[in-house]
Specification:
Elements (H helix, E strand, L loop, with lengths): L9 H45 L4 H47 L6 H5 L5 H10 L3 H13 L1
Length: about 150
């Protein structure tokens, strides 16, 4: 019901869903920022641990450093998995909202997650974009290694 006590119009439903869509997209961006901060902090903590491991200290300091580094790596893995779960859940909700908004609007009004979100090949495109410039170098190295 709207504020007049009448059933919601399709336009009002779309507006409400688009507000939720905007809110969920903001959550996705916030999660991404948190992930970067967590891994930045993890990298910062890893540096002194690596110094402890590779310093000429005692065996005990090396083992303590290795143990703490393994704990840090496991912690980063758990955090990454948790963040991935949240990302998949928010992606699923965004897809639901897109589908419902497009159905109510009888046209493609929103399509970001449907066309570019998780599960659409965007991960492969990201990897290709990152590593594609390195392919010529890899081919040259391969030829050098095979020719020797």
């Amino acid at each position: 019901m709207n504020k007049d006590g009448k059933p919601l119009t399709q336009m009002e439903k779309i507006q409400i869903m688009m507000q939720e869509y905007s809110s969920v997209r903001t959550e996705v961006l916030d999660q991404s920022k948190i992930m970067h901060q967590v891994f930045g902090a993890g990298g910062t903590v890893a540096v002194p641990l690596l110094a402890l491991i590779f310093s000429n200290g005692t065996k005990l300091s090396t083992y303590v450093g290795l143990f703490l580094l393994v704990v840090l790596i496991l912690l980063m893995y758990v955090i990454a998995r948790m963040m991935t779960f949240v990302a998949r859940e928010t992606n699923a909700r965004l897809l639901e909202i897109e589908s419902e908004v497009n159905r109510l609007g009888k046209s493609k009004l929103v399509a970001w997650e449907t066309e570019h979100g998780m599960g659409t090949g965007s991960d492969k495109r990201r990897i290709d974009t990152i590593f594609e410039p390195l392919l010529p170098l890899a081919r040259v190295l391969r030829k050098l290694l095979i020719s020797n």
